[in-house]
Structure formats: structure tokens, C-alpha cells
Amino acid sequence: MVKVAVLGAAGGIGQPLSLLLKLNVQITHLSLYDIVNVPGVAADIGHINTPAQVTAHLGPESLNAALTGAEVVVIPAGVPRKPGMTRDDLFKINAGIVRDLANAAAKACPKAFMLIISNPVNSTTPIVAEVFRNHGCFDPRRIFGVTTLDSVRASSFVSEATDGSLKPHEVRLPVIGGHSGATIVPLFSQVKPALPKALSEEALKALTNRVQYGGDEVVKAKGGAGSATLSMAQAGARFVNSIIEASTMKGVIEPGYVHLDADPESHAKAKKLTQDATYFAFDLELSSRGVERIIVPESLSPYETQLTQDAVAELTKSIQKGVEFVKASEDSKL
Ligand code: NAD
Ligand code: LMR
Fold first, then answer.
1. What does the alpha-carbon distance between residue 53 and residue 20 come to, in Å, rounded to a whole number?
2. Would you say 67 and 87 are in contact if contact means Cβ atoms under 8 Å apart?
3. Closest by alpha carbon to 147, among 173, 169, 180, 114?
């Protein structure tokens, strides 16, 4: 039995994500929650002839039912960027949405894997973690900021840079740090399979910048109609599928933005990179417990080391902002 709940299921990401999840025959129940339009989405997806039972949950009164028994909760609820905005500009709306959804999840399904897509991921992931901590059910191995899209983009862009001689679906490279501009650090020194020819310094910088600001490319192209939805749906479905696969298989690896207490031994090894940051994206080995091991890259080039240092300064502020938001929410209730 695998129940997956999608919160924000009627949105630009939520709809194609729910569709892709319905194609996973291991999912037995797909629970779709939104504050608008979700009955239509569920009725439509429910006609697809795969095993998952699809249920629709509209509005806050049905949130508890949407979440009860869920093993995996994916959160793409909230507003997307328009041109000229940063992800952090979304904080004032999305922080409260994510906090309230996390609150409901901590009560209804405290052991679920929590996958946070809503931006700014660098802050919304700590928000979910702090809410779970307040409910006494924080497990750093089970709460993930979804950064899969950065790795998906890095694989596509590096393949393009080799004129397709590296196949986009076969290329893998770690993308570490966070999920926003300078906090996104692709490690092109560690591309697998190896690049046929070393990148020039100029090409490397251009490629790095393209991964860091890949989201802006889509926001600009959509001209005010939102940000990445379809590539994000694919990336999000890949992450959910990997979480499910890891419950029965060893060696499943996905990137994710996690609290570094998820693997204290690796955290100690990563200190030079992560410095004061308490959350960081790394490749993660997954198991039925969630994060089994944080994979700390062996050696970075001087350029990558510099990028990582730049990332930490912004990341620590974003993490603090999320943590303080939850604290202030509690205080305001006193
Ligand atoms: P969207 O506006 O198309 O959809 C958002 C959905 O959330 C809507 O259906 C809306 O009704 C719903 N929603 C709003 N408040 C809600 C609440 N309180 N409870 C439940 N549902 C609620 O937006 P989108 O394009 O799907 O993007 C969603 C979020 O994902 C944005 O914050 C965006 O920045 C983020 N995003 C993250 C990544 C990533 O890599 N992590 C990639 C792309 C987009
Ligand atoms: C992305 O990377 O595409 C998302 O974070 C959406 C955005 O705002 O760019």
C-alpha cells in the first residue's frame, strides 16, 4: 500500500505531477488536495487504467482526510514567480501556505516523507522541518527540499554542450548547495560519464550560470504566465518514484536539500563545504528510512569551492528566515 498526497494538485505543477504519479503502478492511492478545481483534475486522472485509486479533496476541511495514511506528501502549493521576481519574493505568500500544510501533515501523517517543491525551497524546507519539530516528529531523514530539477537541467545542458555526444538521460553530476541562483552549485568536474573534451573556462562559466539561472529562462519565456511546471512535474515524479523504489531496493540515489543532521557522519566530512549552513543539497542515497547517506563530493575544483562559499552566505540567511518565521508564528499564537 502506498498512498501519495499531492498538495496543490490543481496547479501548473500539480496537474502533470499527479498525471505522472498515476502512471506509477506501485502507488495504490493518489490523494489530490487543492483549494480550487481539484474534483475535475481527480475525475480526469482517475480514468487512467492504472491501479492507484484517485481521491479529490477540496478546501481546508478535507485536508486531514487527504493526508491521513499518506506515506509520501508532495507540496507544490503556492504562487510561482513572474519576470523580475526572485524566489525569495514568494516567501511572504508561500511561507504561510507551506507552514499550514506542514502543520496538518504533522498531525495526520507524522512519519510521511515530505517533499517540498514550493519556493523559496531554501526557506520553505526549514519551515516544514520546524513545524514537525514543534509537533515532536522531526526526522531529518524524511524531509526534503526538491532540487531534482537543477540536476535534470544540468544533465540536459551539459549534453547540449557536447553536441549530444553525452546522452542527456545518461549524464549525472552532483548539484549541491540550495535551489536559487548563486546557491545552486553544479559540479561539472564530476560529470559521469566523463566529458569527451575538457570545457574551456569560458564554457564552464556559461554552463554554470545557465544551471544557476535555468529557472529564469523559463519564467522569461512564459512571459508572466508562471515558471517551470512540466519539467518540474517530471523531476518531482522522478523523486517520488525513487523514494518508493528505495523502500525495497538498495543504492537509489537522488539529489535533495536536507537538514544535515540526516547523516551526522557525512555532515562532519562536509563541514569545509557547508560551514555554518544547517541545510544543504547533496546527492543522497535513499533507503526505506529516507536519507541513508549524504554523498559528500570527494574533491572540488577551486572554481567550485569559490561558488560553494558564495552559496553558503545566502543559504544561511534563507534558512534562518524560515526558522524564524515558524518561531514568530508560534509566538503570535501565545
Ligand atoms: P500554480 O499557481 O500553477 O499552482 C499552485 C497551486 O497551489 C494552485 O492550484 C493553487 O490553488 C494551489 N494552492 C494555493 N494555496 C494553496 C493552499 N493553501 N493549499 C493547497 N493548495 C494551494 O503554481 P505552480 O507553477 O504549480 O508552482 C507552484 C510552486 O512551485 C511555486 O512556488 C513555484 O515557485 C514552485 N516551483 C518549484 C520548483 C522547484 O524546483 N522546487 C520548480 C518550479 C516551481
Ligand atoms: C525553477 O527552478 O524553475 C523553479 O524554482 C521556479 C522558478 O521560480 O524559477
1. 14
2. no
3. 180
| Cα dihedral 218, 210, 117, 14 sign | positive
**Span from the CA of 121 to the centroid of ligand 2 (angstroms):** 10
Tens digit of pLDDT for each residue in 127-186? 999 999 999 999 999 999 999 999 999 999 999 999 989 999 999 999 999 999 999 999
Mark out the alpha helices in 162-229 (DSSP H runs).
201-212, 214-222
Q: Is the CB of 70 inside a 6 Å radius of any atom of ligand 1?
A: no
The CA-atom distances, in angstroms, between 142 and each of 2, 269, 284 are 16, 21, 12
Q: What pTM does this model have?
A: 0.98
Three-state secondary structure call for residue 5:
strand
User: From the CB of 87, is ligand 2 less than 6 Å away?
Assistant: yes
Residues (pLDDT < 70) of the chain are 332-334
Which atom of ligand 2 is nearest to 216's Cα? 9
DSSP SS3 for 156: helix
What confidence score (pLDDT) does residue 330 get? 80
- Assigned C-alpha cell, 170: 545518461
Instruction: Name the one residue in this structure whose C-alpha cell is 510521511.
Output: 112
Q: Would you please indicate which residues are annotated as catalytic (active-site) residues?
A: 179
559521469: which residue's cell? 192
